[in-house]
Amino acid sequence: MKNELDDIVIEKVLQGNTSAYEYIVHRYQDKVYNLAFRLLGNQQDAEEVAQDSFVKAYRNLSKFHYNASFGTWIYRITYNTALTFLKKRALETSSLATIEEYQHPLSEDLPLSTLDKKERKRFLEEALSCLKEESRLLITLFYLQEKSVEEVAEITGMTKANVKVRIHRIRKQLQGHLMIILKGEEV
């Protein structure tokens, strides 16, 4: 959703009032950090990516098109910055991290709905961690941050149809991982 106050503040920044950018940072810092954290799964890395995202947005503010919301634009920058960070980290470590084994003392037929909210959240977080970074990001944007298919498409550069198909497939993967975790089997 477009915010007219964001546009006014951006104009002030572009006219030389650089301190007005603090409003933008303050308004979006939690959302940008949360997105980065969901994708990276590490507080320190998420803080670094969030900071880099705001710096990139500031440096490229003149390229911002007012027909989109600033929130969507900064999400796109954060998404790209996080993916670049992940690629760099993968090259540095030269091997992908293996997924840990999850073993829980739950009976095999215990449905998720009988668990309390804290346990459900823990199991869902474990299942999310089994997904590839890009899949985790799509689920985060759509479900946890409640972005529309159109907004997810704009942020990721995918078509709306591709976003719908990917989210459908990722949901099935997530259900599979969740079932494995609930049964106490190895992932």
TrEMBL record:
Residues 124-174 form the RNA polymerase sigma factor 70 region 4 type domain. NCBIfam families: sigma70-ECF. Pfam families: Sigma70_r2, Sigma70_r4_2. Gene3D superfamilies: 1.10.1740.10, Winged helix-like DNA-binding domain superfamily/Winged helix DNA-binding domain (1.10.10.10). The keyword DNA-binding applies. Residues 25-90 form the RNA polymerase sigma-70 region domain. It comes from Algivirga pacifica. InterPro entries: RNA_pol_sigma-70-like (IPR039425), RNA_pol_sigma-70_dom (IPR014284), RNA_pol_sigma70_ECF_CS (IPR000838), RNA_pol_sigma70_r2 (IPR007627), RNA_pol_sigma70_r4_t2 (IPR013249), RNA_pol_sigma_r2 (IPR013325), RNA_pol_sigma_r3/r4-like (IPR013324), WH-like_DNA-bd_sf (IPR036388). It comes from the Bacteria. CDD domains: Sigma70_r4 (cd06171). This is RNA polymerase sigma factor. Keywords: DNA-binding, Sigma factor, Transcription, Transcription regulation. Belongs to the sigma-70 factor family. ECF subfamily.
